[in-house]
Each structure stands twice: as structure tokens, then as C-alpha cells.
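Q: Predict the assembly, please.
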Amino acid sequence: MIWAFRATGLAMVVAVLAAAGIALAASGDDSPPVTSGTIAIHFSKFVAPELTVPAGVPVTFTLVNEDPIGHEWIVGDAVVHARHRTGSEPYHDHVPTEVTLKPFETKTTTVVFDMPGEYTYICHLPGHEEYGMRGIIKVRG
Amino acid sequence: MRRFLAGFAAIAAALIATTQPAAACAGLIGPNGAVNLLRTTTFAGYHGGVEHYVTSFQFAGGSGQFGSLIPLPGVPDKVEKGGAWTLQRLIRETTPVRRDIAFLSAAGSPTADKAVVLMEVRIDALDITVLQGGGAQVGEWATEHGFRLPPAAPEVLDFYANRSPIFLAAVFDADAAKARGQQIGDGTPVHVTIATANPWVPLRILGLGKRAADEVQADVYLLTDRLPRILPGARDGLSRTYSKSASESLLSDLRSDAGMGWVPQNAWLTKLSINSRVSALSYDLAVDADGNEAPSAIAAGLQAPEPTPGPAAVLAAAVASESSSSNSKVSWAVIIAAAAVIFGATAITLRRGRTVQQ
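A: Predicted assembly structure:
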């Protein structure tokens, strides 16, 4: 009985610790925005697909294509993505928010997000968005 | 080089007589990305430790180049033009209603940065290249040679390369086919001879280039010395529709086709029909030709080979370490929570044990 009592007490302590740990993990969303980050592409999926960045300052993204096929990184609002879904531009390299990556290529691009909000980034090559190539950048004011 | 489409799959873009609509030929991916979803047919015969793999590429009209990638269980001894009637004869044998009217001699992934070309063969309007390399290397080779690989290709090629790093790339030149006088519907059978411990047929790759909800329809004919054991067993989308001792007339007919002199006097014929959604077709066909042992679950794709840390894991670690201290906070929180849960489970187990003792 003594053992059972001690074990029960221990389990309760442990449960409290677990809850605290989970709460702490959840609070990670409140972390300060970063001004640089790496987004890798592996097996046609964005790795670390969600980033939080500040508004109004330059944010540098390192885009690493680990795949033997080409990909795109297009970030913007719904209007931007609607245009690219039906667009026919084969290559993007003039706008910081639109990057084409050749197989195994790494590129950096620096973007200033003027307005806070959530911006989606997508690979608009045929079939890639449907396959799951999308992620989110949260911009905080 | 003109850009051609491919990456795709087709174990068999099959020929098959056009008089058999149910087993019509499957075409390769078209230049506009459209995929022909018709049925494909493959023959895998196994005798004397050698797999004979016969498939066919159909001329579907149009112009330009089309391509296909096929994983192989080992390095082929020979790639040659297949016989003229083997596939049709098998269909006739296993379609009685109409009559009225492996694995893995894996050589291991090469250390070279690039895929190694092991063999190049020209068969009619088909340029065939046998490659050795990891998934990334073969994918890179295909991309450099104009294949427009679909987004699932990197993972699927890696899936196969982890089991056997040998691939057959076929490029079909429609213009050359026209110049040769080939008509729409004409097939070019290809016969691949591979020494393996057991026959093996890739199925998962049939879904490459298709959408998850698309259907894959294919027939696979197995000719073995005895009744084989097969993995996976019957399931939704995969059924054994014929399993009998091969008739003398069938064996005689097969033997009389070009390159088919190896067909034994007695054999067992199995027909497997695949009618599966792409999303459910996550396996290949592993076979124990003697029927004495369980086929390899690894060869069937039901079990992963020994895991090795891949670039994704390394990258994920790099991303984690690059992140700010907030991420460290999250990581530690997760560790604390996980430790607490483990500790808690131990405590509960301990309590149960003590309670039973009382």
C-alpha cells in the first residue's frame, strides 16, 4: 500500500511536469521573429514549412533544394498564387519573392514584408502544390 | 535535347493486341503531362536463377520523345527486343471467356556522385539505358536527360534505390517510330534478362506521375517452376486471378517466340491483376519462386531496409540548431514533457505491479 501511494503521488507529480512541459512547448509560438531562416526541400516537401518573421525589416531566406528535380519558392498573398497557378513563366529570378531552384541548388533571397499577416509559399510547378509543396510565413508587426 | 516527359512508370507500357480491349496498351505520359490510365501488362518468367522480364512500349502517336523509368532487381545480363507474341499469348491463355470468340542482388549504392551508365541499347525507336545509382543520382541523370519527373519521383526513386540501385530508362522517339513506319498501337517489346535469387516486379512505380485518387490497372504474369509464394497477399486492389500449371500448348507457344527458348517443359502460371488507387499502391511484388520460403517483406516494400540518416534528418537538425533560443526553449520543453511521460508510465507500471503483489 505504501508503494502504491508513493507511486500514485509520483505519477501526479509527473503529470504536472508533463503538462508544464507541453504548455512550455506551446508557448514557443510567442518566440521572437527571426530575420533569417533556412527552408529546405526534400522529397518535394518543404522542411520547416512555418516561420515567423518581423514586418518592415529585411529577412534572408536560404532555400536548399535537396531534390534531383527543379522546384519553385513563390511567396505572396492569394492573388499572387492565383496568378502563378495559371502562369507560364518557366523561370523566376527577378523578384525576391519568386525563386526558381534547379536540382540540388541552394539560393538566398532577402524579402521585406511591409504588412503583418500570414503569407503562403508554394511551388507552382505542375502537380507540386497538390503534392503538398506549401508552407507559411507569419509576419508580425 | 528536346524535353520529353517521363519519370513515370510503366513497368510496362504494354503492347498487347488491340483486339483485346480489356488489356489495351498503356501509353507513356504525354508532353502535356496527361497520363494514359489504360491497363499495362508485364511478364516475369523465372527459371534457373534468371528472371526474364518482358514488357512493351506502345507507339501512341504524336511526336517528340517520351520516357519511362523502371527499377530492376539487379544488373541485367541482356536487354534485347522481346518476342512478338509472348504477352498476347499469355492474355489469351488466362482469358478463357474471350477464347470462345524478388530479390535483389543489390550491389549497394554506388559511391559516385553521378549515376553510372551500365548499358545502352537501341531497340527500334527506343533508346534504353541501364543505370546504377541512388535515387538522387538517377533522378539527376533523368532530369539532365530531359525527363520531367513528377514531384513524387525523388521519394519513389529513393524507395527503390534503397532496395536495388539499378534502373532502366527508356526513351521512346515518336518521330523515329513514325519514320520506321510504326502505326499507332504498335508495341515494341523489350526483354530484360537478370540473374536474381528470386523474381521481383515493381508495382508502386506504376503510380508515379498519377494523382493519389487515380486508378492503376495492370496485369502481371508470373511463370515459375513451381507454385510460387507471393507478397503481398491478396488485398483490395490486388488479386490472383489465375493460378494453374501452365499448359503444354502455352509453354510450347512461348518457347517458340524470339528469345524465349529458356521456357521450361513444366511451369506454373500465375496472373495477378492490379486495380488499385495510387494512394493504396505502396508495395511491389516479392516472390519466392520455389514456394518454400516466405518472400522478402523488404523486397515487397512492406518493410524498410536498414535505416540510414538521410539528408532530411541532417537538414532538420541544421534548421533546428540555426533557430533562435525560442526553439531551444521549445525543444527543452518537449524533452521535459517526454521524460515526464516516460517517468509517469514507469510509475504507473510500478504501481500496478505492487498492487498485484498485494
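The longest strand of chain A covers residues 58-65. The helical segments of chain A are 2-26, 78-85, 128-131.
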